[in-house]
Amino acid sequence: MNAINKLKEISAFLGSKGIEDAVKDAEILITETLHISKSKLYSGDLEISEATSKQIDALTSRLAGGEPLQYIIGHVNFYGLKINVGRGVLIPRPETELLVEEAIKQLEEFMTFTPKFTVLDLCTGSGCIAITLAKHFPDADVYGIDKSNTAIEYAVRNAVENNIKNVHFIKGDLFKPVDNMVFDCIVSNPPYIKTDDIQSLQKEIKDYEPIDALDGGADGLDFYRMILKNAPKFLKENGIIILEIGYNQADDVKNIAMNANFRNVIFIKDYSGVKRIFIGRKK
C-alpha cells in the first residue's frame, strides 16, 4: 500500500472516532513506525508492506481507544530533548516547558556569582525538568526525587539517553532523601488536581496517566502545603523556589508561601493567560 493512501485511511478512521488532530496524529504514527521524516511520507513514492500496515493499524486502534499518543510512540519532545514516557509516568506538557524557561532565567542570575549552584526537582516524574536544567547548566548539580519506582527508572533512562552526567535521581518522598542538603533552587510540578475532579478529566489522562502524579488532595493544594512549609530548611540564603500551579490556584499558593516566609512572590502566566508558574524567594 502507498503510504499516502494509508495516511488517508487512518486519518479518516481517527476522525470518525472523534480524534481532533486526526491527520497530525496519523502522520506521527506512520513516521514513527517507519522511522522516516514527514517530507519522506509526503514524497508520494513510499510503499509499505502488509505487515507494517497491520502494525500501524494496531497502533491506530490504541489511539482510537483513548491511549495517549505519547505512550504509544514511547516518547515526547520536551524543550528540544527526547524524553521517554510510558504507563506509570506523567506525560510532560507545554506548561512545564514554561516552568523550565522561567527556571533558566532565574538560574542565569546565579551564574554571575558561581556556576556551581544546586537544584532540587521534587516529583521529578520522567525527569524532564531536572534533565533539561542539567543540560542547560552543565556545571550545576541537579537532583530529582520521586516516590515512584517507574518514574525513577524512566528518569535515569532519559538522563543516560540524553547524555546528561550532572543529574542525580533518587527514589523517595519529597525532601526525605536529601534531609541533610541545601539548594540554591527548588523546582517542582507537583500533583495539583482536586481529587473529585480527576474523574472528569479526559479519558487519555484519567484512564492512563498515574493518578498519584495528578491527585493534589481535596482542594488540590496538599503538595504546595508540604513543599512550601518545608522548603526554607532546604534552601540557601536568597534561594528560590519555582512551582507549576493549577488553574485558579494562585491566590491560595501565594497565601501558603507568605505563611512559610517567602518573599518577592510573583506569578508567570501561561499561553492562555492563566497564572501558571509561582516564583518565591527565601527571606
From TrEMBL:
Keywords: Methyltransferase, S-adenosyl-L-methionine, Transferase. Methylates the class 1 translation termination release factors RF1/PrfA and RF2/PrfB on the glutamine residue of the universally conserved GGQ motif. S-adenosyl-L-methionine binds at residues 146, 189. HAMAP family: RF_methyltr_PrmC. Its EC number is 2.1.1.297. The gene is prmC. Substrate binds at residues 189-192. The keyword Methyltransferase applies. Belongs to the protein N5-glutamine methyltransferase family. PrmC subfamily. It comes from Dissulfurispira thermophila. It comes from the Bacteria. It holds the Pfam family PrmC_N. The keyword Transmembrane does not apply. InterPro entries: DNA_methylase_N6_adenine_CS (IPR002052), HemK-like (IPR004556), Methyltranfer_dom (IPR025714), N5-glutamine_MTase (IPR050320), PrmC_N (IPR040758), RF_methyltr_PrmC (IPR019874), SAM-dependent_MTases_sf (IPR029063). Transmembrane segments: none annotated. Residues 7-74 form the Release factor glutamine methyltransferase N-terminal domain. It catalyses: L-glutaminyl-[peptide chain release factor] + S-adenosyl-L-methionine = N(5)-methyl-L-glutaminyl-[peptide chain release factor] + S-adenosyl-L-homocysteine + H(+). GO terms for molecular function: nucleic acid binding; peptide chain release factor N(5)-glutamine methyltransferase activity. Residues 116-248 form the Methyltransferase domain. One of its GO terms (biological process) is methylation. PANTHER family: HEMK METHYLTRANSFERASE, MTRF1L RELEASE FACTOR GLUTAMINE METHYLTRANSFERASE. This is Release factor glutamine methyltransferase.
